[in-house]
Amino acid sequence: QVQLVESGGGLVQAGGSLRLSCTASGRTFSSLTMGWFRQAPGKERALVAVINWSGDSTYYADSVKGRFNISRDNARNTVFLQMSSLKFEDTAVYYCASRYGGSAYGVVEYRYWGQGTQVTVSA
Predict the structure, then answer these.
(1) CA-CA distance, 97 to 6, in Å (whole number)?
(2) pLDDT tens digits for the chain (123 residues)?
(3) What does each C-alpha distance from 90 to 23, 48, 76, 99, 116 come to in angstroms?
(4) Are strands 10-13 and 117-122 parallel, antiparallel or unpaired?
(5) Which of 72, 74, 77, 96 has the fewest Cβ atoms within 10 angstroms?
């Protein structure tokens, strides 16, 4: 069982930055593929970024490419999402998720989920 706890959400003006963190319980963090997803009101949950177990392979949704950066610190059981040049349309609840195995891009492929953290970007 893996428990994930996100932090770092909040209210920011358009053009600003935020860094989300997600800390995992357990001693298997370095074996996990980690992903960040987001869900805006009335929309389906969607992939934002993925990072593999070692951190040397990442994937970004087109909508955030060049603005967001995913990274991880296996010694601290933590994955980060650095968000820059934020736009109003980035407003959503952001979820951290994990899975054993290689990188994956669908919601259903992730077994463990955090409770979510709200990011609100004011126009």
Answers:
(1) 10
(2) 899 999 999 999 999 999 999 999 987 899 999 999 999 999 999 999 999 999 999 999 999 999 999 999 999 999 999 999 999 999 999 999 999 988 899 999 999 999 999 999 998
(3) 22, 10, 27, 24, 14
(4) parallel
(5) 74
The 3-class secondary structure across 5-65, one letter per residue, is EEECCEEEECCCCEEEEEEECCCCHHHEEEEEEEECCCCCCEEEEEECCCCCCEEECCCCC
- Token digits of residue 26: 């357990």
113, β-bridge pairs: 97
- Give Cα separations from 108 to 24, 70, 116, 117 (angstroms): 19, 20, 16, 20
- Give the separation between CA 106 and CA 109, rounded to whole angstroms: 5
